[in-house]
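Exam review. A common question shows you a sequence with its structure tokens and asks you to describe the fold in words. Practice with the pair below. Do the first one on your own.
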Amino acid sequence: MLENLHVKDLALIEEADIDFGRGFNVLTGETGAGKSIILGSINLALGAKASSDVIRTGKESSLIELSFSLNDDQIAKVREAGIEVSEDGELLLQRKIMPGKSVCRVNGETVSVGQLKELSGTLLNMYGQHEHQTLLKASTYSKMLDEYAGEDVFSYLLMLKEELTKYKDLKSKLDNQETDDSIRSRELELLEFEVNEIESASLKEGEDEELEKRYRFLSNVRKIMENVSKAHSMTGEDNDVNAELLIGSASSLINQISSFDEEAMELSEQIASIEDLLRDFNRALSNYEGRLNFDEGEYREVEDRLNVINKLKDKYGGSIEKIYLCLEEKSKKIEELQNFEEFLRKLEKDIDDSRKKLLLICENISKLRTKASKVLEEKLIKALGDLNFLDVKMEIKIIPDEENITANGYDNVEFLISLNPGEDLRPMQNIASGGELSRIMLAFKSVFADSKDLSTLIFDEIDAGISGVTAYKVSEKMRELSSDHQIICITHLPQIAAMADSHFLIKKGVMDGRTVTNISSLDEDGSVSELARMLGSDELSESALANARELRLKAKR
């Protein structure tokens, strides 16, 4: 669960700490006080796109920290993502936002924004103010059903994606086959010429590198011979003055005085070593010089061979390895053209086999969806009944279309619903009421929360468009959810706020001439006072407070 949120220098927040509790956490406050900034900061900490505009004016950066205590399942999933977590399950997310960049850390280790986003689904689920609008998009229904159906569906969808790619490649290959005999004949003739050109070169792996090295040597051998001869003359040939003679003379002079002084003896040993090294060097240099020669015929042969290889590289690939890969492809194409009718029959069979595999995978996906839909229907009907809908009927309709296979299968998924007595089932996207959509989305969230190991659910104004008895029903559903999950909720409804285990007040004020958003945890009296304000009381009269206390007592009961 989310234990703590720490925010510093973000928008209107100078510095804030919220210690969330188990059960039902409620955040309330006047419109514009900054409630959405609080939940926005959680989104930012989990990798949402950040602009430097969020940094508090006059500050160099913003800092957001989230502290979590994870259950065993969450620990395993976080470790699978390559992030180390201690056995006690403590996890600290930090994001520092600066102009033009941000730094993200998990338990002190720097991570990418992408890694943070991957973690978010494991740590919590957030319901935004306008998320219920997704219920108006029929394209999202199959995704919602698949999410409820679980891992088996996603395994099949992965298989489907791979097989669909194979099928499309085969279809494309068939579509690109030239059926004109004269064109195929010309293509075959060209391919045979190219294959012969490569094969006749008899290339060997690594040959080009050895030839380049030898060519570089032969191209510079005259310079090498000239420099070696000069060096030999300076160090050891029988000239009047050379390094070997000079060092020999110096060695003799130092040797004559070595018996007079210990330091001179050390110098004598050093120069004797130099003299030996120089003799060894001259012998090696002489041997090297003796092996140096320039063969004009070899030079031309190496040059011509390199020209052949480089010409083939230009035509068929940048290396001998790539040339042989090209040879393999062209040889295969020749075989196809020489046995064109047989090739076409095989290609058509492969396409037919691939389509059969696709249909089988889609059928398995459809069966899993159908099975899950029956359970989901029942649970949604019950959840919607708990939310003050008078007479709920619902059908999840799955319509297979074998002629329209996509990466999502061949099913068209429709959510049909009737919320009032006497009304026919109709597509969910035709429901106009925002309040109805909010409650339907809450029903989905409650059912999905029970099917997944999500410890924290966050709701930003789930109460949009509802009031009266319905508000009580929604508050009861939220309270029911909080018995098994940590719920964090921004609300304007006193009926929901009254259910809180932990109540936080978000208030805008002025400090040192600047607007500041402050967050405070309310005790029982503070919660009652805030409920009185939410009930519409301008002044906290005794009657208003009594009304708030009654609401709180009813919630507790």
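Now try the second one, then compare your answer with the model answer below.
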Amino acid sequence: MANFYTDNSDLRHHLTHPLMQRIVALKERNYADARKYDYAPSNFEDAMDSYEKVLEIAGEICGEIVAPNAEDVDHEGPRVVDGHVEYASGTVRNLDALVKAGLMGISLPRRYDGLNFSLVPYIMAADMVSRADAGFVNIWGLQDCAETIYEFANEEQKQRYLPRVCAGETMAMDLTEPDAGSDLQSVMLKATYSETDGCWYLNGVKRFITNGDGHIALVLARSEEGTKDGRGLSMFIYDRANGGVTVRRIENKMGIKGSPTCELVFRNAKAELCGERKLGLIKYVMALMNGARLGIAAQSVGISEAAYREALSYDRDRRQFGKAIIEFSAVAEMLSLMKAKLDASRSLLYETTRFVDMYKIYEDISKERKLEKEERDEMKRYQKQADAFTPLSKGMGSEFCNQNAYDCIQIHGGSGFMKDYACERIYRDARITSIYEGTTQLQVVAAIRHVTTGTFLNMMHFYEEQPVSDELQPLRARLKELTALYETTVKNVTETKESEYIDFHARRMVEMAGHIIMSHLLILDTQRNASFRASAEVYLRYAEAEVHKNAAYIEAFDVNDMAYYRRN
């Protein structure tokens, strides 16, 4: 039987990272729930056993149900019937299997019927679901919108909505509009408060809404009359059971075709305020988007995994000129780099997830009691690291996902261009990852301040101090040389104090940081597990080439050269 957890030992490697013991103890409040719930863990080993069992169940469903359904779902797709979405039949079976297995509300507290798991196993499940069917994760994975309700809604709202998510109801985040894509401060969907019944009503149009007909939606709308910027926006909870929203159409997309991307029409749709007025974009959407970007990073890694495995399987079976094509050096090099990029992006994904876990748990604890100074300092440190690594993980991971999907097609040759092979669908599904929830260019905008303020450099020095074996010291020494080059390059750019010049080279500097950090993470993975040695070696060579290339380009570029680009 196919199981996407047990057939991938890399997942267990990341699940058993040393920091997990601390994360789980904090998440479980030193296992206090064991006195209230007979299914709550009483110690770390018990908790990890629960994580493993749930991940094995998720892995089996992905391998036995979701993956076999993927091609049919891609062909059938969802449709609009009487103003609402009907999923493809395979999607219905997928969702039914995961809901019956209790894989909704994974990270929500037990008092709302959740599993109270760390974010790591949730992201790991998303990784596996994405490998099985990248489109389906956009339906199942939107359960992470419930985290925003848990964080910012009042207790009565939490009691009403969160158990429904844990029971299997789906979610959506209704943000973008026809005239407001990435520029969310331009949102114009109108929210009007009725003094008569004390309710809010929404009117307008939303576009490009993933799983737009979900049971519960978080809607960004303009609550302040006469405003035109982000300060006039609030967040609302919309319940599909109340009506008032019609699906005008489902977009005909290149990929992730099983996921309905909807245009929605709101006509006096009843909704309720989530949190405080005027903070919809400034506070709540920022939290929502960071969670979504982590989810897309997981989706990217899952697609990379699928692409690599399809390529490897084809390479072993396909024979040309009397031998398997994997025996040709050009093909072997492509495969080894695909695996290195996959391992590097997965290492960055789970490092980021651990940072998010730590600061989110401390943030949650702070609502129960006052944090000690050491705890506050630690929370701030992990929050800063999470803020830096989230756009890096989404940006680099989605680009590698696209590169691996491209190489998978290339290895298949002409066959890869045909719909007979899964790689054709994987290639189409991959393309969106570097676009939605903020394009790669917007991830650079979010990450560049961590270049200029030294966050990434400090993390490089932190990784340099972690103990590794004598055998790995030569790799570490080469990385130190790259770090010195990175530091010099950043200094030369920032000392110009020309904001346009800094912005122009931002992506190159962010990518340099990403390559160095991912190389460090692979070396640390190798320290714990020798099976990562090949990827560490291959990726470091790739990183050296990329870092030197970007540094050379920047060094040869004069501020006055900007004129050639402005004219376009």
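Model answer, second protein: The chain has 19 helices and eleven strands. The longest strand covers residues 261-273. Full marks require stating both points clearly.
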